Amino acid sequence: MILARTFRLAALAGAFACLYDGAAADTTMALKAARLFDGKSRTLMQNGVVLVQGDKIVDAGAGLPIPAGAQVIDLGDATLSPGFMDAHTHVTLDYSGNYNERRLRDLSKNVSEIALECIPNARATIEAGFTTVRDLGSRITNSHDFLDVSVRNAIEHGIVTGPRMIVATHGIGATGGHFDPTSGYRDMALGREPDWTDGIGNGPDEIRKAVRHEVKNGADVIKAAVSGGVLSLADEVDTPQFTPAEVAALVDETHRLRKKVAVHCHGDQAAREAIEAGVDSIEHGSFLKPETLALMKNKGTYLVPTLLATEYIMGKIDAYPPVLAAKARAAAAARSDMFRNAVKIGVKIGFGTDSAVFPHGQNAKEFALMVGLGMAPLDALRSATAADAELLGVLAKTGTLEKGKLADVIAMPGDPTSDITATERVAFVTKNGKIVKNGSTPAAPAANAGTTRETAAEAAALDL
Ligand SMILES: [Zn+2]
Predict the structure, then answer these.
(1) How far is the CA of 464 from the centre of ligand 1 (A)?
(2) For the domain that residue 157 is a member of, what is the CATH number?
(3) How far is the CA of 285 from the centre of ligand 1 (A)?
(4) Residues 95 and 72 in one domain
(5) How far apart are CA 335 and CA 14, in angstroms?
(6) Domain co-membership, 278 together with 423
(7) For 92-96, 124-128, 213-217, 251-255, which range has the lowest pLDDT when averaged over its residues?
(8) What is the pLDDT of the chain when averaged over all its residues?
(9) Ligand 1 center–CA 159 separation, angstroms
(10) Is residue 225, in this structure, part of any structural domain at all?
């Protein structure tokens, strides 16, 4: 509240009317707040200042002098931070309603209708302070549309307000595996067996074809399901779904094309094989044993734990079909010890939520879950800034408040190291030096208004 009031007073002073559009290229915008988190340090700075010109940060630090003629935004008792990142979202998806309604809806809506529904999802995400997301899968059943590429481009072109997106297109998996969109339907009910053009491949050569097809169509990162998932209908939660030769082909082909590989993986054996093959991140990781986490530490593999998705699903567990509920309970029971072990062992931990399993814009609730399971607040903040920037391959241009970086700057009220839930009340957001949010609390996104997720099984087509 203090933050919002301070900013409104500044705006009322009349000098800052143009600031809502960001600083002009030749004008310096000075953001001030009681504290500053630079994205990488182990302490907060007092009397934080970030100086912005055009789309770039020209300086950031404690108590910097304000250049003459600068337009000053004093955010008061708040903490400045690099824009948050979420390394695991699905901005193009929103699984409202119960499981069977969702499956029917997937087959009923036009792709264009689904595309329009992404607009409030993207806005809710950036208004929550997430200026960059890695969007890990956007499959629409029996469609080859690359919807995440379209949304990414619409945001880049300023048509839609949203975070910078690094997209994975369809996601690659095995026949009958977690990503097979026809699993659970009668054979041929959807007309044909999915193939590499849908991201479904078997054998190293088909996996390579799938990678090439996705990169050809705009994938920035490759996603694959190397183990079963909680809520898919035809697989065990933790069985390996790729052979070592397949996962080796996945990693080799992707790295040749200078992309990174993120793998959905709950099971320990599948994770071990994927880590040995050189994947860049393990998503979820529910059943990973300490030895496997130690292997990740040695190889520098990131863990993206998506605690919030599990938390949300467990809140609705009784609504699941029994077979799926059993898988969800098993994964949820394992993941807290796994996360604590990962922190203790010192595995690199990226911030990722699986947004779309829960309503978009609630991503920051992940912070409190990480801290609740033993992560230091500053380490949780670093996971969503410099650590994710390294994982996403964008650290050279964003992820910290430093001279020369893109001006993705947010502010949250108070001190997040004494109350981590401050991250859930981001009140000020700039992306590329343009102000996206200026102090008001975000309203619930329109797409979610009046709807709640009746069951957790709605997440079945995701990679949870
Ligand atoms: Zn996911």
Answers:
(1) 6
(2) 3.20.20.140
(3) 12
(4) no
(5) 52
(6) no
(7) 92-96
(8) 89
(9) 26
(10) yes
DSSP state of 185: S
Rg of the chain over all Cα atoms, to the nearest angstrom? 22
Cα of 300 to ligand 1 centre, how many Å?
22
Residue 454 lies in a domain: no
Q: Of 365, 380, 395, at which residue does a domain stop?
A: 395
User: Is residue 278 within 8 Å of residue 251, measured between CB atoms?
Assistant: yes
Note residues around ion ligand 1 (Cβ under 5 angstroms).
354, 462-463
User: What does the pLDDT look like over 52-74, one tens digit per residue?
Assistant: 999 999 999 999 999 999 999 99
Q: How far is the CA of 196 from the centre of ligand 1 (A)?
A: 20
Q: Would residue 455 count as lying in a domain?
A: no
Q: What angle, 0 to 180 degrees and rounded to 10, lies between the N-to-C axes of helices 365-372 and 307-314?
A: 90
Rounded Cα gap, residues 112 and 375, in angstroms: 41
- Ligand 1 centroid, distance to 246 Cα (angstroms): 21
Contacts of 257 (CB under 8 A, 6+ apart): 211, 212, 215
How many Å lie between the centroid of ligand 1 and the Cα of residue 402?
31
Quote the CA–CA distance of 36 and 415 in Å, as a whole number.
9
Centroid of ligand 1 to alpha carbon of 266 (angstroms): 12
Count of the separate structural domains present in the chain: 2
pLDDT tens digits, residue range 93-135?
987 557 777 878 889 999 999 999 999 999 999 999 999 999 9
User: Measuring CA to CA, which residue among 410, 431, 422 is closest to residue 31?
Assistant: 410
Distance 369 CA to ligand 1 centre (A): 18
**Parent domain of 123:** 84-395
Same domain, 166 and 250: yes
Distance from the CA of 85 to the center of ligand 1, in angstroms? 15
CA of 167 to the centre of ligand 1 (A): 12
CA–CA dist 310, 357 (Å, integer): 9
Q: Are residues 410 and 299 in the same domain?
A: no
Q: Please report where in the chains the tokens 């964003």 appear, as a residue.
A: 398
Cα-to-centroid distance, 354 and ligand 1 (Å):
4
